[in-house]
Design brief:
The protein has about 150 residues and is of the alpha+beta class. The protein has one domain (about 25-150): Protein of unknown function DUF192 (Jelly Rolls, Sandwich). The protein is built from 3 helices and 9 strands. The chain has helices at about 1-15, 55-60, 135-140, and strands spanning about 30-35, 40-50, 70-80, 85, 95-100, 105-110, 120, 125-130, 145-150. The protein has a 7-stranded mixed β-sheet with strand order 6-5-8-3-2-1-9. The chain starts with a helix and ends with a strand. InterPro entries: DUF192, Saro_0823-like_sf. This is DUF192 domain-containing protein. It comes from Maribacter caenipelagi.
């Protein structure tokens, strides 16, 4: 009888499901990308900021996706080398590394979902913009383009 009780209790525990909450996009600011250092706007994004340790470590993890006009801007305290990975990120991203002078320095395009391989900035940077995978190429974004952003 004890064995039957143990087997039954193990079966019951395996039926539990863990519900995870979805994380919704919060429009906290606006970002424009300019052709090199000109006034020609290539595109604009609604952005969510990642500044605290928790926000920069979590980023877009646990989300199902974003609209093409949305992105997340990571702001670091100083310019240095950074590496990102796609742990717990369920959709492809373009990771755009931006120097302190607000110019795009490098890209990691179409970063694969759930991949934990480090994706280096290659050069010291202060900002990172994450947008949907493939969008940087589609919009013609390139090294040397500049950004500006504002908070709502």
């Amino acid at each position: 009888m004890v064995v039957a009780l143990l087997l039954f209790s193990c079966k019951e525990e395996s039926k539990k499901t863990i519900a995870t909450q979805s994380v919704d996009f919060t429009h906290e600011g606006d970002l424009s990308v300019f052709l090199n250092s000109s006034d020609t706007v290539k595109t604009k994004f609604n952005i969510e900021f990642a500044e605290t340790d928790y926000e920069t470590q979590t980023g877009l993890m646990y989300r199902k996706g974003m609209k093409n006009n949305q992105g997340m801007l990571f702001i670091f305290p100083d310019e240095r080398m950074h590496s990102f990975y796609m742990k717990n990120t369920e959709f492809s991203l373009d990771i755009i590394y931006i120097k302190e002078d607000l110019k795009i320095a490098s890209f990691q395009e179409n970063a694969q979902p759930l991949n934990e391989t480090g994706l280096s900035s290659q050069v010291p940077i202060k900002y990172v913009l994450e947008i949907n995978g493939g969008l940087a190429q589609e919009l013609g974004l390139s090294i040397g383009d500049s950004i500006s952003f504002s908070r709502k």
